[in-house]
UniProtKB/TrEMBL annotation:
SUBUNIT field: Homodimer.
Domain Quinate/shikimate 5-dehydrogenase/glutamyl-tRNA reductase: 189-308
Class of enzymatic activity (EC top level): oxidoreductase
Location of the active site: 52
Domain Tetrapyrrole biosynthesis glutamyl-tRNA reductase dimerisation per the UniProt entry, residue ranges: 324-420
Lineage: Bacteria, Pseudomonadati, Bacteroidota, Cytophagia, Cytophagales
Keywords (A to Z) from UniProt: NADP, Oxidoreductase, Porphyrin biosynthesis
Protein name per the record: Glutamyl-tRNA reductase
Amino acid sequence: MLNTFRSISLSYKTAPLQVRDLIALNEEEARRFMLRLRDFFALTDLLVISTCNRTEVYYAVDPASAETDISTEITRLLLIEKGLTDTAAYLPYFDVFSTHETAVRHLFEVCTGLHSQVVGDMQIPNQVKQSYQWSADLDMAGPFLHRLMHTIFFTNKRVAQETSFRDGAASVSYAAVELIDELMSVQVTPNILVVGLGEIGTDVFRNLDARKLGNLTLINRTRSKAEALAEGTEYRVADWADLTSEIQQADVIISSVQRDEPLITLQLLKNLNVLTYKYFVDLSVPRSIDAAVEQIPGVLVYNIDHIQSRADEALNRRLAAVPQVESIISQAVAEFGDWSKEMMVSPTINKLKNALEQIRRDEIARHIKHLTPDESEKIDRITKGIMQKIIKLPVLQLKAACKRGEAETLIDVLNDLFDLENQTADEPKRFF
């Protein structure tokens, strides 16, 4: 019988950032949690996804125990693993997809970026692939999950190739990084200074890190926040007091500092020596870079309006492509659904093939001693062809019945006719 797929989900749609931060899992925590789920619930097909915007668990249960929903137990175990013992306070933040169809569809939509905070997010496919690798490493991905994930990866390729859903940068932070990539296209390793590490500054840093665009230096009023972000990387952290000298060394300066008056002014840059070009990207509202600094030869300033317009154009293209993406997902889900249903009848098909094969062998064995080797070979070839033709129609009927949701009736008939229940799929049973 086909396993039943289910999911629990905590995301930016259901929980504020502080709650998501409390429940997010790093790789070590995710792997440990998966092992706990295997030990507690004997789960096999299991996928745990955890990003800055969502933490989700996908799992398959045997239909025999499908009526017992363990989603709440899994959620409680996750919260306890994160040290949140008051589980009742956090349960309302989780969505539960308790039917096979809704859980499968939700995973497709998450993996393609339909549910991302930035629609069409290009990072989510790589994050899901990493989660899938954890499942494979822990031997917690069976045939069902393998087929599901590879179907999703193929669907992602279709979305990228056939739609504009991944075109451009639909967030301000990512649009800023794309702009920098364009500006620095002729420079192999530009020096990039990120000033201010609030939400936007942190997103810019993460996108720069993902793209590996150059040598990064971080400056924040609270140095410890910059050090925490740079931990485990080769990036530099500079003191706030050294801002002027760091600007002198940088090719690109990105500022997202929140203050009433501009931070970077003509006065601050009065001794600035620009040899070629120096680019300032202002992501602050109000502006943190005085537009007057463009009076310095070689200095160019891009403000939030310029970046936002790029992001808006990309976002509008992506939103226009959503119906096409949903159509592609619907096709993929339907095809995967057909395959899933056929999984239910494949043991019966194998048992039927083995039963007929045993009948064929028994009949040949009764006469083979009276035949020459050439005659034996011909008889073997002829009877195999007959058997294949005999079994073709029942197999086609079973697969068709799967799509109609009527396979169980045919399975029962075949089991009665050939006594298949007393025979394994791999070992033929003697009838005579």
